[in-house]
Amino acid sequence: MSPAAKKLVLFPALVMAVVAPVAYAAAGLGAATGALFGGFVAVCNAGVIGWRMDRGADDPDAHRQLRLAYRTSIERFALVGVLLAAGLGPLGLAPHYLVGGFVAGQLALMVSSVLTWKSVAWLPDSRPRSSTSSTTSRT
């Protein structure tokens, strides 16, 4: 797994390592279990993104990359739906804490994706160009 993909998965996992003890201190073991499972769902979601990032990074075909992006979004949607349904249904976890842990993990995923995006070396430089190039004056 590339360093960018590892960072994408590691940050939500670290956030869950903080959220679960807070939920335990606030409302006990049931709350911590629900929050931890919600965070696990978010980490699985991040894992799918990281796996697909590595898999499609070297493909020069834009059409294939677009298909992979659509397929990945469907896979992620299905994975999150199945895991949340399992947590709310058969596992019987506390719904508020499960959704809260998932939201915390997703927010951490968003933050880590911004940090990862800024560290990707192949991105074009987005800084404004210096004004040393020829300037046109309008009269």
Task: Provide the fold topology.
Layout lengths: L2 H25 L1 H28 L5 H27 L6 H25 L20
> Radius of gyration, Cα only, in angstroms?
20 Å
Distance from N terminus to C terminus (CA atoms, Å) equals 56 Å
H-E string: HHHH
Task: Name the poorly predicted regions.
Answer: none
Walk me through the structure.
The chain has helices at residues 3-27, 29-56, 62-88, 95-119. With 139 residues, the protein is an all-alpha fold. The chain is flat. 29% of the residues are buried. The model has no long low-confidence stretch (mean pLDDT 82).
Keywords for this structure?
single chain; 4 helices; 0% strand; flat
Task: Explain briefly what this protein structure is.
By secondary structure, the protein is mostly helical.
